[in-house]
Amino acid sequence: MRIQPISNYLFEKNRAKLTRLLPARSAVILCAKDRMPKNGDQYFPYRQDSNFFYLTGIDLPEAILIICPDHPDYRLRELLFIEKTSDHDRTWVGEKLSVEQAKELSGIENIHWLNEFEDFLVRIMSHVSIVYLSVGNEGGVQYKLNTSDYRLYRLLADRFPLHQFQNIAPKIASLRMVKEKEEIEQIEQAITITKKAFYEVIGILEPGIHEYEIEAVITAEFVRNGLQHHAFEPIVASGKNACVLHYTKNSNVCSNNELVLIDFGAEFNNYCADITRTLPVSGRFSSRQRQVYLAVLHLMEKAMQIIRKGISIVEVQRQMVPYIEETLVDLELLTNEEIREKEGSENPAYKEYFMHGIAHFLGLDVHDVGSKEEPLQPGMVITCEPGIYIPEENLGIRLENDLLITEHGVINLSEAIPILPEQIEDLLAR
Ligand SMILES: [Mn+2]
Hints:
With 430 residues, the protein is of the alpha+beta class. The chain has two domains: 8-176, Creatine Amidinohydrolase, Chain A, domain 1; 181-429, Alpha-Beta Complex (Creatine Amidinohydrolase). The chain contains 13 helices and 16 strands. α1 (8-20) crosses α2 and α10 runs antiparallel to α11. It is globular. The two termini are 37 Å apart. Residues 274, 360, 383, 385, 400 line the site of manganese (II) ion. Manganese (II) ion (MN) binds next to loops.
């Protein structure tokens, strides 16, 4: 273990919350995510399914969770199946989890080897009439894959055709939207390490550096802190590349008079940070760059005033539109006539320069589960990320903070990462 795992108390709480949402005579059966094949005999680095991790704290493939809250045999109410270490594994990849370790990580008492799954399955299925599986979440990218959960569904549907099968994902999503204290701590740790990487970038930024050299110091800092993953592929975009919203080639040279937009985040115990800062490569903003930068910063401040408990992300976005439009007029990018012409259309004029949403949920997924229509509640964590992109000026500026919604306003979890233009220039001058 490179970093301290999360207390199993979190996963016990999560399972208890899910249990309260289940009808009588039902069971949840969830599979750990498969390892993703890369090429030849190689795999991509492993990342657990977020829902499976949320309920188990287990970070390995080849595992199955069963929750069957009203099973008459109390030993069958929570079951975790894990893979036994074979002699071959012991030689080639080392020990997998022991029963004791799996118990400690998950807080689940009843741990069994995977090859016993079928025996237990029959006893579960004979008690329940509804089975909740994680299949059919077409919102994500995984629907193209024959996932472990989908293979389990095929097996169950074949053998138990008269049972009712339902998708558990919406229930888990409703729980994941509101973070427990332990989850916020993980996000804070991810942000702290992201901040350290930010200072590493400050230390090396100079004209002529490649975008990938900036990526390299970020990656190095994450690994140095015991992390295995970025929360997402980092975007290091200088000059006009910043206008490509998901630019991840990171192959260009950062030139003297350009800004470089860096959208990056560490992943700590599978919880994500998502931060964007935009820096002047030379160490100083030109007057036009500063003007646009301050405009984006003011939009950030405005949005942070609007964001509060009870308002939805969609509503925040709607209330921000007049300020975005006013800003773009002030920057002489749009005229009031152009705005009026397209008012209320599918493609309002401001979207030419500010084309993405201003916020999304953050958690185990960088674009975390949850409906943007739902009123924000204390315990939710969202990003706030205004941006203005002007390809004709080789200029794109986005600033992104991670915010915790509380009973009384918002807490900026990324407050410690400098954002004021004077702060940035001072740091770069050293
Ligand atoms: Mn984001």
